[in-house]
Design brief:
The complex is a heterodimer.
Chain A lengths: L4 E3 L2 E4 L5 E6 L6 E8 L3 E9 L14 E5 L5 E5 L8 E8 L8 E2 L3 E5 L1
Parallel strand pairs in A: 2-10
Antiparallel strand pairs in A: 1-3, 3-7, 4-5, 4-8, 6-7, 8-9, 8-10
Chain B lengths: L2 E4 L4 E4 L4 E3 L1 E4 L5 E7 L5 E7 L5 E4 L2 E4 L9 E3 L8 E8 L8 E2 L3 E6 L1
Parallel strand pairs in B: 2-12
Antiparallel strand pairs in B: 1-4, 3-9, 5-6, 5-10, 7-8, 8-9, 10-11, 10-12
Classes of the chains: A mainly beta, B mainly beta.
Chain lengths: ~110, ~110
């Protein structure tokens, strides 16, 4: 079946603008994760959604970052007032349930802030 | 806190050589352990996993054994191919409420013909 999809695949924006990144998880997967892959920080966790529970936002680097998941499926990561240090590849993953279940990753959105 | 440490790369090998990529972890409980691989131009893929001590994960000729006594999960392959050239990430999740993956820094493998 279809894997995790993300859009856009690439995004170039100017410093100070807001951006929205979208993730479509695998159908039926209740758990959804956002990660960031950057040169300076490696692969780091941002946020986790599990069903209707309150999300785990412990990895969000600042209050400029927020995410929502509508209807338990599609998720949007929003970065307000982007900074150059936000440039990175943003990865979304989903799993059947939370726990040690395999997380399946999307292709990522490459964000460049000029 | 919980963390993963991988050997520095890049690792350069000739085809058919034996591969070991070291991975050790620090965790307050009993993690599940994973190896993910990122081929050039592609997304992260799960390579193998182990969820409890002494479990051996294996896939595509790669193996890793969950060693609780040494807190390690080293990746091995007996005979590498050029197509194995990629970046390999060791990772763990904890049995807490979030199950987020905590990744090592990644090890780039380059296999020469």
């Amino acid at each position: 079946g279809a894997g995790v999809s993300q859009s856009p695949s690439n995004k170039v924006t100017e410093k100070g603008k807001d951006v929205e990144l979208r993730c479509d998880p695998i159908s039926g997967h209740t758990a959804l994760y956002w990660y960031r892959q950057s040169l300076g920080q490696g692969l780091e966790f941002l946020i986790y959604f599990q069903g209707n529970s309150a999300p785990d936002k412990s990895g969000l680097p600042s209050d400029r970052f927020s995410a929502e998941r509508t209807g338990g499926s599609v998720s949007t990561l929003t970065i307000q007032r982007t900074q150059q240090e936000d440039s990175a590849v943003y990865l979304c993953a989903s799993s059947l349930v939370g726990g040690p279940e395999t997380q399946y990753f999307g292709p990522g959105t490459r964000l460049l802030v000029l | 806190g919980n963390s993963v440490t991988q050997m520095e790369g890049p690792v350069t090998l000739s085809e058919e050589a034996f591969l070991t990529i070291n991975c050790t972890y620090t965790a307050t409980g009993y993690p599940s352990l994973f190896w993910y691989v990122q081929y050039p131009g592609e997304g992260l893929q799960l390579l193998l996993k182990a969820t409890k001590a002494d479990d051996k994960g294996s896939n595509k000729g790669f193996e890793a054994t969950y060693r609780k006594e040494t807190t390690s999960f080293h990746l091995e392959k007996g005979s590498v191919q050029v197509s194995d050239s990629a970046v390999y990430f060791c990772a763990l999740t904890m049995m807490d409420s979030s199950y987020k993956l905590i990744f090592g820094s990644g090890t780039r493998l380059l296999v020469r013909p």
